[in-house]
Write a structure and sequence with these properties.
There is one protein chain. The chain is α/β, with parallel strands linked by helices. It has a domain of about 170 residues: Carbamate kinase. Helix content is about 35%, strand content about 25%. The mean pLDDT is about 90.
Amino acid sequence: MLIVQKYGGSSLADFEKMENAASRIVAAREGGNRVVVVLSAQGKYTDNMLKTAALANPNGSKREIDLLLHTGEQISVSLMALILQRMGHGAKSLNARQAGIVTTSAFGSARIKHIKTDKIFLELDKGNIVIITGFQGESLEGEVTTLGRGAGDLTAVAVAAALKADICEIYTDVEGIYSADPRSVSDATKLAKIGYREMLELSALGSKVLAKRSVGLAKKYGVRVKVMSSMKRAAGTLIEGETAVEGIYVSGVTAHEGICRIRLSGVPDAPGVWYKIFDTMNKANISIDFVEQFKKSDGTKDISFTLDADREADAKDILEKNAHRLSFTGLSHDENIAKLSVVSTGMDTNPGVPSIMFEALYGAGINIDSVSTSEIRISVLIDKADAKRAVQVVHSKFRELEYIRDM
């Protein structure tokens, strides 16, 4: 088998954890497999470098920040190669350029264009364990780029897709995918398996185990992904295919607190307004959700939408620069909201899911601001202060009705 393994920063935080990861890599290699490993920077290295960069220059160029941040993964792969060599195994570390990871030139948020696999296969054919820097690539102009926070998983899935690996194992500080965050919901259930669509929804809705881009790429190329604990020898969660069940099956209840809502006021009630707003956000690579409009008696309307809080400053800057073209007269924002979501197969044929969710929130005295649905997901906006309690009461309600179960 050809296995791609990925270890995050928490799994590499100190030398003891590095050696623990190395022991797992060796076990896979000694099991007769060809092994490619993708590593993140150790511990809080990236966060610390960002703080240092802000001290050096709070308005520093994204190019220089990418050049600074990429050093963390380089340290990780070189140390891991040295550890594996000491353990008697051939190991070769490759930076993103050597591994052939070609990206767009958008510093801080580059996208992978393609991966030249020749060098990786060459080292595998020599019997080496290949260790690759995650989170980064090289543009066609020869510049170092980073792919955005949490993109080590994305690198691993992309490499697995390019190599046509049998499986991509993501090692992290949790034992798998749960029906809710086990750190705040004591009776959360670990899932043995989950389909791509459900995992994609959970990732987009605030689940921190896998980034949405990673799951989307796995779904597109059919990469089998297994999420496992780096510290415990426990069965993880396999992500593949689609979940096929009769009746209602709830995959997860999650709250995304890292969002904000932007409201544009005084927008003309005329054709083309929606296009201009979506086009402006799309060109800035900003995803928006919960889009609503409120018509006013003066012939204008207010338009509001939500987005990830870490893109709020970018969105406001872009909107203000385009205020004349978009024809709005006022802009306000609200950060005291959270998105509570239930992901469930069978929602299209079992309309009871929303009412069960609403009943649980009503019983807890939690007010609903807005509602959005899809075939397998229902989301509501609530006060951020109620988010953790909302997850607990909604999860408990579905568990009580036995709609949450181990697959």
